[in-house]
Amino acid sequence: MCGISGYYFSRNTSRSLNALGLANKALVHRGPDDSGLFEDPLYGVGLAHTRLSILDVSQAGHQPMVTPDTRVALVFNGEIYNFRELRVELEEEGYVFHGQSDTEVLLNLYLAKRDLDNGLQEMLRRLNGIFAFAIWDADQESVFIARDALGVKPLYYCSIGDGFTFASEIKALLPLLSVIDEPNRKFLGDLDVAALNRYLSFLWCPGEGTPLKAVRKMNPGEALLVSGGQIKKRWTWYQLPAFRDHSLSVSSQASIEGTATLLRQAVHRQMVSDVPVGAFLSGGLDSSSVVAFARELNPDIRCFTIEALGAEEEGIADDLPYARRVAAHLKVPLEVVRIDAARMAEDLPYLVSQLDEPLADPAPLNVLYISRLAREQGIKVLLSGAGGDDLFTGYRRHRALMMEGAWSWLPLSARASLERMSSGLDQRRPLFRRLRKLFNGASLDGDARLVNYFRWVDQRDLKALYTPEFRSALGVARAEDPMLDYLAGLPSKTSRLERMLALEQRFFLTDHNLTYTDKMSMAVGVEVRVPFLDLDLVEFAATIPARFKQRGSEGKWVLKKAMEPFLPNDVIYRPKSGFGAPLRRWMRFELRELMADVLGEQSLRARGLFDPVAVEKLIEANDKGRIDASYTLLSLICIELWCRHFLDCRRIA
User: Fold this and answer.
1) Within a 10 A sphere around the Cβ of 233, how many other Cβ atoms?
2) How distant, in Å, are the alpha carbons of 49, 333, 341, 533, 618 from that of 304?
3) Is the pLDDT of residue 462 over 70?
4) Would you please indicate which residues are annotated as catalytic (active-site) residues?
5) What is the pLDDT of residues 580-623, one digit of tens each?
6) DSSP of 410-446, one letter per residue?
């Protein structure tokens, strides 16, 4: 795992190399073991790399990796799990290797495929792994850039006129963006209000948007060819299996056996490493399943969990007893990082600066603290259970979707009444919050209601918070458009549950869970691997009938049955819980001073995005329990903190 960045300008400037060095410096946390720069002034191309040494920790794995004739150079962030099989094939074709890294395999695979018809597509389809890479080819006069199928590894880019830049994180992209923007300072700092509206609507931004108009997220399973500083070709090399015909679905027994077999294969495949590998262990089904199979190769695999002291809040379950139960059952060592909930609240500004995006969720702190403890104990790689809910169900919205049959047949007027009635309940009580969430959007139909399950606040309520200037700039743009457009491309016979899972896999997983998992683990130089997102398992899970995933109110039925031989029943069938951060209490106590600062009248008027009077009323309504606006307030706080750090260049952490 590493950090990568680079540029391709049709005109080279004296500022380019200095900017590349600054970009690399901004990524040193991602790769503290080594770094390197490559520049070809003749073509206006530069590549930079910071390295976290996992495979072949010698200098033979140094990047940028350049061919002996210096005509082709590669920067690569990620892991290719099937690199050994690919290497054997390439050696049989006459390619010579000087080290043992997967980077060298990737470089030679490109050389083998670049001149073939559809060769780049074939190259990408041969890769089993997680990656974001860029390859400069002087013979082709192009930069080839690709991101892995599910978007495990991040990549941001900017294409303005005859200049193109990219980086693993926005903070590294900004020095390069300033070179493109230097002549007129036209683009740098121009906020994307449509993206901000999405962050506020969902707490994260579905699609390729970021807070800056000039900066885009590269989509998962996407590739680019850049020539002369401009994008010449852009294509999707991987589509989720939801887009393919699965009329020949598998039986319940085959589903159970296949799930166990392929998850075991994925875990074993992803344990390839030349440094120690550990694992997250929350005590939930997903992380416990990963550890159960990991211990088959390493009986002493070190596991890590968290205890948030003072995080007691109604509706939040304690994971620690379950984590200890699993560790004892599997006989693996368990390390516990203990963090005071008040300290977590203090770390919110750092969270925003490290995430690069204003994701309004305290859960990333969990990843940070565990990764930091693992790194302190010499562990560079952690296995994660991320993705289990997105393949096999498990979120509350999946259960809510299955309950629609009890009321969706009602006429529109009755459904609208349910929506109004539930919204009037005291939102300080967890049951009433869930009832409001259940019936929010009941008056909607079809895909619009599916997307609404991801919303945290109604659009009309959001617009009331915006200044006239914000509303004018937003125009008719709708936060849900990227997800609705995506659903429109699915086969019409796709079930509602499978349509929702497609949204989980394409958007919630990529733009939220994987984004924060990567950023917070790499903040301390730790690589996280996600066996549930092995493509063989992803493809197989799509063939499992929806009724074997969500059975009424029970989620993950097939995974639970698959893991019965390996885990205790009280762990498999425990209640679902989320990360224990007492956000609603924070808004009353620990974050009150910060909220008064960033959401105060002076701060809001200076920024010009949100109406101070409307925000003050929102805070008051939240305090009195008329609404549950804790996450909306957190989102407003995160956006202002993001602006201070990335636009005003004010250190907030």
Assistant:
1) 12
2) 29, 8, 18, 21, 38
3) yes
4) 2
5) 578 888 888 889 999 999 999 999 999 999 999 999 999 999 98
6) S-HHHHHHHHHHHHTS-TTSHHHHHHHHHHTTTT--H
The model carries a pTM of 0.93
Q: What is the pLDDT of residue 526?
A: 94
**3-state SS, one letter per residue, for 81-107:** CCHHHHHHHHHHCCCCCCCCCHHHHHH
- Rounded CA gap, 379 and 381, in Å? 6
The residue type found at 295 is: R
For 14-72, give the DSSP string.
THHHHHHHHHHHHTTTT-BTEEEEEEETTTTEEEEEEE---S--SGGG-SSEE-TTSSE
Q: Which residues pair with 78 in a beta bridge?
A: 131
pLDDT in tens, 82-124: 999 999 999 999 999 998 899 999 999 999 999 888 999 999 9
Task: For residue 406, give both structure tokens.
Answer: 């009890």
DSSP 287-317: HHHHHHHHHHH-TT--EEEEEEET---TT--
Residue type, 526: V
Tokens coding 650? 């004010």
Q: Report pLDDT for 2.
A: 87
* CA–CA dist 331, 325 (Å, integer): 10
Ordered alpha helix ranges (H), 95-238 = 102-113, 119-125, 170-181, 193-202
Per-residue confidence band for 651, with pLDDT thresholds at 50, 70 and 90: low
